[in-house]
Amino acid sequence: MKPWAFQQIRRVTLSRWQARGTREFTGRVTTDSRDLQAGDLFIAIIGPNFDGHNFVLPAMESGAAGILVSHTPDEAMLAAATAASVTILQCDNTVRALNRLAAAYRRELRAKVIAVGGSNGKTTTKQIIHTLLSQRFSGVASPKSFNNNIGLPLTLLSVQPQHEYVVLEVGTNAPGEVEALGQVANPDIVVITGVGLEHLEFLTDIHQVAREEASLARFVGPDGILFLTNESPELLHALRLTRGPRFTIGHAGSGADMEATEIHESLTGADFIVNGRTGYHLPLLGRHNVFNAMLSIGVARRMGLTDEEIKSGLQRVKPAAMRLEPMQIGTHLVINDAYNANPTSMAAAIKMFATLPLCDSTASRRRVAILGDMLELGSGSAELHRQMGRMAAEHPIDMLIFVGPLMLHAADEARQKGMAVHHFMDVQAAGAHLPGLLDKSDAVLLKASRGTRLEKLLDALSAAEEIPAVTA
Prior knowledge:
By secondary structure, the chain is of the alpha/beta class.
């Protein structure tokens, strides 16, 4: 961020002085003492497994100019701050103070703020938009999945005065979280990728998911615009009272402003035509990623990019780690989609894998889908896993391997459909048996929620092949 005086930071974070030092704040804000640089503002966040207040003294030793805390500093901390001339501010809650600081800083930004929400595809869409815009403009995007009430404000605070855009990822686990992040971001452009069954422990059904995701649109600025798919009736209903311009994308014949009239998939990605005129190639797997790309094209056009610039930018897009990431492990083609999962994204991955043309030198590849537990689905979790087992069994997949206690429900359903099915209670058990289940030429899909840690099976495959995993 632009360097602010600590007096201004104190005012916008509703903090009070505990120590007033002379070290100058250089504009960098961090919550990680291991990442701290001289002149930083260190904010002591309290998380489920850590307390940043335990790292205040190391932060001072590393050259922090200022410390923002919620605990009252003890004598040792105050003495260290006096000795090092470090400023200490105390607030009621450091996460709230971080968001207040980001919201205040956002009001000074000249950069276009682009916020990407939705149940699935946020990270991929964010990355496509960033790749396209970076050809002409200077800007930043949320690193990894910085999409909560810590990651989003930190991304906003990373914007420099010379930047012309920032792409934010907006996530949610419970009602009201998107609204809170929208108030901080106040975006110029909002993208909603769609809605699906996610975080049902707190977002009880698809209608509440839609209302939660749609709440981001309320914060679009007066000269802004909303980009969305037109194929989720729940989302469209939730947006019915939202004013302002919107731009829709969808399948051919859907009545959207931008329609994919032809889609052809291969191992190198997807070719598609927009509105029967302009053709594009996207080097990502999955038909659903075509629609993420179309949303990104809409944003890029809004920002003034030409079709030639967009075509060139799409060629530079790479899959995010563990999101339909193709890998070659020995003779196995692996599609690593183990970053996260809910019923919507798992169904999309299965459909992609079942229909993906495996037109390489190995004509006899079997398709083996390894599916792990989908977490945070609430009281309907067992039934949703049973539905996924039935759905997977209805696709041309040669073998299904289910991992986790919840996937036992899916395995039972798939067996009743006559599928070749194996089930293991955890990743360790699956890894021990996996080499004996696979043929050398098999194509393998990995898909599960993050907590399942299904990517650990890559080590089992690599060990069986006695060569390291190499990204294709």
